[in-house]
Amino acid sequence: MAMTAANYFTTGSRCTSQGSSLCYQEFQVSGFLRLQPKPQRTQLSRQQFGIRASVVSEVEEKKYASEDAYSSLSQVCAVLGTQWGDEGKGKLVDILAERYDVVARCQGGSNAGHTIYNNEGKKFALHLIPSGILNENAICIIGNGVVVHLPTFFEEVNRLETSGVDCRGRLFVSDRAHLLFDLHQTVDGLREAELKGSMIGTTKRGIGPCYASKAIRNGLRVGDLRHMDAFREKLVNLFRDAASRFKSFQYEEKQVEAEVERYRVFANRLGPYITDTVQYVNEAYRQKKKLLVEGGQATMLDMDFGTYPFVTSSNPSAGGICTGLGIAPRHIGDIIGVVKAYSTRVGAGPYPTEIHGDIADRIRDAGYEYGTTTGRPRRCGWLDMVALNYSCQINGFSYLNMTKLDVLSCLPNIRIGVSYKSKNGKTLSSFPADLQTLEEVQVEYEDLPGWEVDISKIRRYRDLPSAAKNYIDRVESLVGIPIRFIGVGPGRDAMIVKD
């Protein structure tokens, strides 16, 4: 695939450490990276031009190392979250998207989200559409495992097209994906209110109720929009089901009719986007096209493996790739796990390494830890190696991408949670499923010195402060998986490739 000039920057909207010219909340794009064909390098140039050539060669070597690290990834590659979400997956996806022919989402809905910037510094907030949409040569797929709220979908399409990003012929939605209606969002709020003091802390985007409709087999799929004659009856069943479950959910016949007419309009507009994506993805694989899978949420929010019931309603772990896209497990090559240099969590649920007070505030402010989708402040904590090892065990990651390392530059000392002990003092051998046990664990920490200097402009691993490298090396040794990519700032170029 030819490289394009769809060069853009990514941010989790957060502020860097002191001394940096970029800010995670807002930063100026003073230029943009242009990808060029790799020039031929010869030993003659170094000999002929001496010191100057040596300096140029060092710059080129860094560039080639990055290109090789990205371009050498497998035909089918996935980028997944390892923690409780918000790890900054979008940045690596955006970098890789230029090297892949197809970028696909396999699960979740509009509860996922990140912000990307094009080469002119214009911001795009995406919640449903894969981030590869800014790469004009990439095909973007919303797979069968995603739940699709069409008003949100068309809002994103409209914003993109108004900004000059053409989605026609490049964006496809699975005919097997389930439709998320406004009534699902209403039910989501009613369910949270019903739980009162035991609220899950959902985004109230209707994700859980939509997956519930799918599970009890009364949901509507995108393909049902091709048969509007039967659509009304199926939609009535959804309204009736909600009304029977919640006394405060009341509706009139005219509401149903209005929704049917609304979706009749959607059906006409969505027609060109509807595709058998299972066939499309597998045919692309057969033709040796490169496929990048963009995960939403993260493993510790997985319906089966996360801190249930304080989880999302899908499988953001590796298994969700197969069930959400219809691709065979043996076709999946590299799986990259994205891990924040510390940890965060939104909403309720156990969080063993959570910290409070001044240190938590400093991390939250430096990292601008507020949700892209909800704007909610995130809970902050130290890196939890028990949870990370558990996540790595489940997913079988090839490499890790550590993000937001620069945020820790504001701290004189940094802690790593290395093990759990039960209340009777016994070291736990694995991440517990029982929430009471998890709430009661005592975390054993290792303390490492901080580096307290701005690292946001560093682009080579060897140029990092010794304390920063020691931190990375220690995490790497505890998890047993190479940390190949290291994020040191919000800019798209603020990524170090570690050989």
Automatic annotation (TrEMBL):
Against PANTHER family, the record matches this protein to:
ADENYLOSUCCINATE SYNTHETASE (PTHR11846:SF0)
Q: Where does Mg(2+) bind?
A: 86, 113
Q: What is this protein called?
A: Adenylosuccinate synthetase, chloroplastic
Name of the encoding gene? PURA
The organism encoding this protein is Ceratopteris richardii
Q: Where is the active site?
A: 86, 114, 214
User: Which function does this protein serve?
Assistant: Plays an important role in the de novo pathway and in the salvage pathway of purine nucleotide biosynthesis. Catalyzes the first commited step in the biosynthesis of AMP from IMP.
Which residues are noted in the entry as GTP-binding?
Answer: 85-91, 113-115, 378, 404-406, 487-489
Query: Coiled coil: which residue ranges?
Result: none
Q: Which family does it belong to?
A: Belongs to the adenylosuccinate synthetase family.
What pathway does the annotation place this protein in? Purine metabolism; AMP biosynthesis via de novo pathway; AMP from IMP: step 1/2
